[in-house]
Amino acid sequence: MTKANGTVEATDPPLKIAYQIGFWTAILMTVLTAVAFAIAIATPPISGPFCRSGCISYPYFSVVSHVPNDYLWLYPALFIAPLFLILAICIQGHTSSSKRIYSHIGLSFALACTILVSLDYYIQITVMQPSILQGEMDGLALFLQYNPHGIFIALEDLGYLMMSIAFFCIGMALDNDGRIERALRWLFVVSPVLAVGSYIVLSVIYGNNLEYRFEVLVITLNWTTLVVAGILSSILFWRILQSEKEEAL
Predict the structure, then answer these.
(1) Beta bridge partners of 8
(2) pLDDT tens digits, residue range 148-198?
(3) Interacting residues of 38 by C-beta distance below 8 A, sequence separation 6+
(4) pTM of the predicted model as reported, rounded to 2 decimal places
(5) In angstroms, rounded to a whole number, what is the distance separating the alpha carbons of residues 83 and 57?
């Protein structure tokens, strides 16, 4: 059943399924993001501008003693972007048809983020990590997560910028019908503005020496956004599903 403003009520079977999937996806995404965040914070950098002690430098041959500890955060982080993509699809069902173009664009950027970040993390786990342990280090320096201006950091930067743009588009697609919707809308709109703005500022300040400064900032910003958005989305979907149950009685 479609409302006058173009949104679909939860009594529509396909949308009910979307809300159910969205509820559990939001919870799982929140938990995995928080776990990855905690592990990452507990894993101090051993190279680059934020390293304080025991620092290593190119070609990073001595990193074998840091494996697998330095790679643990990648396991939960591997699933964050795919879960966000699923959540974005579920949220699309809660948007009005007049704003659906924004959610479609947001899904495109969410898909791009998922491909970039998931591929980046999966290669680190399945290629870089065993190669380091086997002593097969020839030609790996450019791809290692320890290289502050390597391919790993570049793909993360691009992937999380794509996620930021997806945030903005999804935020633009949401209506201001309730407090949770308004909170989600503001969260999704403000977060990417900060991310893109910080990228511009840091790029101007550091130029070719940007290294992983923006990567740390954008991950902190985006993962915080995902945790808060996951909590808000789960509450939103739960309330809709509960309201439907009450109406069915």
Answers:
(1) 2
(2) 999 999 999 999 999 999 999 999 999 877 899 999 999 999 999 999 999
(3) none
(4) 0.91
(5) 35
